């Protein structure tokens, strides 16, 4: 979702993904982290949800 025109100031982009089980949730999050590290040399500023893996948040400041 493009958030740039909203006054929230939360982030420029907000990306939502869905998975059917915790293994898929973890795999998606790990792949996002790996590809952003490899291609853009970016690490998340904040990450949470890896404990229970029902949901995971990766915060790259301008993109959540």
> Could you say which overall geometry the principal axes of the C-alpha atoms support?
globular
Q: What share of the residues lie within helices? A: 25-40%
Number of helices: 1
Gap from first CA to last CA = 10 Å
List the uncertain runs: none
Average pLDDT figure:
89
What does this structure look like?
The chain is an alpha+beta fold and 64 residues long. Helix content is 30%, strand content 9%. The protein is globular and about 35 Å long.
In short:
This protein has one helix at 22-40; strands at residues 46-48, 57-59.
Features:
single chain; 64 residues; alpha+beta; 1 helix; 30% helix; globular
Architecture blueprint of SSEs:
Blueprint: H1 22-40, E1 46-48, E2 57-59
Antiparallel strand pairs: 1-2
